[in-house]
Amino acid sequence: MLQKLSLTALALIASTLLHAADPLTDAVRAIEAGRHAQAAQMLTPLANGGNPLAQFRLGALYYQGHGVPEDEKQAIYWWKKAAAQGYTEAMFQLGSAYLFGSQIAKIVPDPDREAAMWYFQAASAGHAEAQYHLGLLFLAGKGVIDSRTEAARWMRKAAAQGHPEAKKALASIEGGK
């Protein structure tokens, strides 16, 4: 009888542990439900603990000013932490922040070059949107040399992943030779 009771208790404990709340999943659900302040509170200890997804998500909340004061510098801080761990989406967002941000572009000497550097890192890791954006930078000569060859190279990589705008841009680049 005692052995049966012990097995039942163990099964109950195991079931409880399996269904225990995952703080990161709960934070993402809070974001999806529009409970941004709650999500930020849940993400902060995870981000401080080194979780790259938590760092990325917390950075996004700061960038958009959802649940926390809008703060591009804080967003950059968290995205750089996630990027340092190889989180490709954070690298892409860093590139976009330097290219399109209103405050962050003022704290570096050449925001276009900074954007190109982060897009390059994400693009080199296979991020199709970063490959497309990097191709656009090469077409415009923003932050990088003006090079149709390099633009086509990166557009080709993005197009190979099914990126529709990259396919159009590539056709235009190659048709305009």
TrEMBL record:
SMART domains: SEL1. Coiled coil: none annotated. SUPFAM superfamilies: HCP-like. It holds the Pfam family Sel1. Keywords: Signal. Residues 1-20 form the signal peptide. This is Sel1 repeat family protein.
